[in-house]
Amino acid sequence: MYARGVMRVVTFFLLFSITALIPLRGNAQSETPLPRIAYILGAQKCGTTLLHRLITRHTSVCEGLALVHELQFYGKELHFFDSPSRFSRGKEFYASHFRECKSTKVAIDATPDYFYNFNDAMENMKLTYGLKAFSELKFIVIVKDPVERWISFWNHFRLQKFYKGLNEYSSITNATETLMETSDVTPYLDPNNSCQSEGSCFWVNFLIGGLYGKWLRLWLDRGAHPEQFEIVFLSELVGTKDGTIKTSHFVSRSLIDRLTDFLNITRFPESQVPRLSKQNHHAHLDTIDNDVKERLDRWYAVGNCYFASILSKHGIRNWTDMMEASSGWIPSPAICERLGFDEIGAFDSEYEALPSEYEYEYEYNGGSSDAGVPEDVVDSEGGFDQGSNVDIPGAVVEDITDSEYERSGGGASGILFLAIFCLTLVFVGWKTAPRRKPGGLSSGTYSRVRTRDVDPDEEKRVLLGD
Fold first, then answer.
1. pLDDT per residue over 42-63, tens digit each?
2. Is the bond preceding residue 95 a cis peptide, omega within 30 degrees?
3. Rounded to an integer, what distance in angstroms lies between the CA atom of residue 80 and that of residue 360?
4. Three-point CA angle 195, 403, 103, nearest 5°
5. Residue 287 DSSP symbol
6. 321 with 249, same domain?
7. Taken in order 443, 445, 448, 454, is the CA torsion positive or negative?
8. Which residues in the chain show pLDDT less than 50?
9. Does 210 share its domain with 344?
């Protein structure tokens, strides 16, 4: 009986150990090598699809391919690091989307929600690559006038009825006035607030998506380096002040050369410089009243100063160059000073971890490019429930060191060793356990009767219960 009890306990631990191995297979700790991947992080509704289409025309660049059961846009937007269900499928699943990319080519993942750190996308990326490899990745961010971005966002998602919160407003003018009254820009730019991802920030104010400096600062504070970033203004890409696309016009030669140099690939031959085309263009059916639009320009002005300040201080782009590339929506340092702009937070060379939101167990309501929203706030029509009095979650996350990543990677081997040890105990217990005797009587019963030293007739009577 004792041996059987031991076997049961050991078997329980064995099953527990094997079960514990399953998540480790899914958190991208496998040995599957990834191709050299560059990331178009965002920003959402700023031309990521256009930029992806232009870059992937290069013979040294490879785009991802959606799997058979997936929607087509998963070739461009893989949503691996920002979707818990997809991330849990592991590195092999992610690599399978680049199955046709040769080792000599640069693969592209253009998921706009990465820029907004949706579902801890940054931490998932670091877990997948490790800190050293993460620090060598290439990130491209394309931006446009945040006022125009908000208009694109409204018309794209309001038409799709994807974000339920947008349906609370009668028009974009009504939405803009209401959201501006929620707060001015400064509290959202504070690096110590609890608004640290799309999942928490967009509940409070959709306009936060246009505060590019806030999101870039978040990446820099959490381990990315300035030299990993290339910032592109849509207006300099398409060659028009307002960012409108003129079909068949050539892309800016100087910009496309800058991008190929950044990716360490050869420049486009003169005959192969890509032309522009409208393939992901959505008509702006709803526009903002002019007076409200001017107020929104002023609302975003401090945020634009903050963005330019971060890029300039870290040597990512020159301030004067940004003023020209943005066609005017980046203010001059003098105007920023008159606006009362003050540096928000420190710009130290060594960054500390910032407060982060609790981990979200959200899923994607698939079917819409440039979109990924929490599952528990998606209504039956695929809308996003912004909520009225949202309490933004906040928790302090510890700094993640190389040793902690190594420990998390070495956990699989420890549990595997434990499983083998338990399996050995089960085998030994099975070999040494007493065997059942013929006649259907247990060995224990048979042994106890024989030790009484009774005659055969008495033994038979006892066994039959007579």
1. 999 999 999 999 999 999 999 9
2. no
3. 15
4. 85
5. -
6. yes
7. negative
8. 19-30, 346-413, 437-454, 459, 462-463, 466
9. yes
- How far apart (Å, rounded) are the C-alpha atoms in residues 376 and 362? 7
CB atoms inside a 10 Å sphere around CB 413: 10
Q: Is residue 459 part of a domain?
A: yes
Q: Based on the fold, state whether residues 215 and 69 are members of the same structural domain.
A: yes
Cβ contacts of residue 113 below 8 Å, gap of 6+?
Answer: 42, 44, 79, 82, 121, 198, 371, 372
25 inside domain? no
First CA to last CA distance, the chain: 27
Residue 380 domain-assigned (yes or no): yes
Ramachandran bin of 254, using left for φ above 0, alpha for ψ from -120 to 50, beta for the remaining angles: alpha
Query: Does one domain contain both 341 and 447?
Result: no
Distance of alpha carbon 280 from alpha carbon 180, whole angstroms: 28
Does one domain contain both 206 and 126?
Answer: yes
Position 274 scores a pLDDT of 83
How would DSSP label each residue in 208-252? GGG-HHHHHHHHHHTT--GGGEEEEEHHHHHT-TT----TTPBPP
Cα separation, 285 vs 154, in Å, equals 10
Residue 160 lies in a domain: yes
> Which residue among 400, 426, 450 closes a domain?
400
Q: Is 367 in the same domain as 457?
A: no
pLDDT at 390: 29
Question: How many domains is the chain built from?
Answer: 2
Compute the distance between CA of residue 342 and CA of residue 385 in angstroms, rounded to an integer: 34
Whether residue 458 sits in one domain with residue 312: no
pLDDT at 441: 38
347 and 446 part of one domain: no
pLDDT in tens, 10-24: 555 555 555 444 444
The domain of 241 spans 31-400
pLDDT score at 31: 57
Q: What is the pLDDT of residue 57?
A: 93
The pLDDT value given to residue 158: 80
